[in-house]
Design brief:
This protein is mostly loops. It has a domain of about 80 residues. The protein has seven helices and five strands. The protein has a three-stranded antiparallel β-sheet with strand order 3-4-5. Strand 1 and strand 2 form a beta hairpin. The chain is flat.
């Protein structure tokens, strides 16, 4: 079913989002605007077809029907709280009876504690005339001769440049000169570019259409029993 609204003068019901709205539901509130002038609905103001009035919030009613909980409900008696026993707490007494621990107990002697003796260091004499194993086993070795690096081969890089630096080299002799095509001479554009183009001649300025509903405040939910809201242009509010 299309989303459309038929004129009120014809007396037909209105169509909104596939729902048939009777004339007596919403049309009776059209004239009850704060300013006194009849307003326009959301569907009448919208030009893009994307704005619709939100769904009405249903009224919450108490649940009065029977349920399995109501049928099977049984009141249970709460257990009585156990009162704390009021009595004197007996004093703590030491254990004086015999036990297997007392009977089998035997005192063991603790081992003597081992104490590590303090190390005493003897100062070394200032005159060291003794010979160590390093000095006795020391042997002076001759350093190996340094091997010189071989000169790099310059056969690939030798150019036939003799005494005069202006002489031709092998690269210059083997170079083949290629003819370069001459570039076209372009006419430089004038600085005062007051000419017209195809774009400027065919351009037509067009302003984007803005839906009137997008410029209005957010649409509130209709009250119970209604399906659309009306806009009062003088009071600037939804009703």
């Amino acid at each position: 079913m299309p989303n459309m609204s038929i004129s009120r003068e014809e007396g037909y019901p209105m169509l909104q989002r596939g729902r048939i709205l009777e004339k007596s539901l919403d049309e009776s509130y059209r004239s009850k605007s704060p300013s006194g002038d009849p307003g326009k609905s959301v569907e009448e103001l919208c030009t893009c077809g994307k704005h619709h009035c939100p769904q009405p919030i249903p009224e919450s009613q108490p649940f009065c029907a029977d349920s399995s909980y109501n049928q099977d409900y049984r009141k249970w008696e709460l257990p009585q709280n156990r009162k704390a026993l009021k009595g004197e707490v007996p004093e703590y007494l030491p254990f004086e009876a015999d036990s297997s621990y007392h009977q089998d107990y035997r005192r063991w002697e603790l081992p003597t504690r081992f104490t590590k003796p303090i190390d005493k260091y003897i100062e070394t004499p200032e005159t060291r005339d003794f010979i160590t194993s390093y000095q006795s086993d020391y042997k002076k070795w001759d350093l190996p001769q340094k091997v010189g690096r071989a000169p790099a081969s310059l056969s690939r890089y030798i150019l036939s440049c003799a005494d005069n630096p202006n002489d031709d080299t092998l690269r210059q002799l083997s170079l083949d000169a290629h003819n370069i095509a001459t570039s076209e001479n372009y006419i430089q554009a004038k600085e005062d570019r007051k000419f017209n183009t195809i774009y400027t001649d065919s351009f037509k300025g067009k302003q984007l259409e803005v839906c009137p509903v997008s410029l209005l405040p957010p649409i509130p939910h209709p009250p119970p029993g209604r399906h659309t809201m009306f806009w009062d242009s003088e009071a600037k509010t939804w009703y």
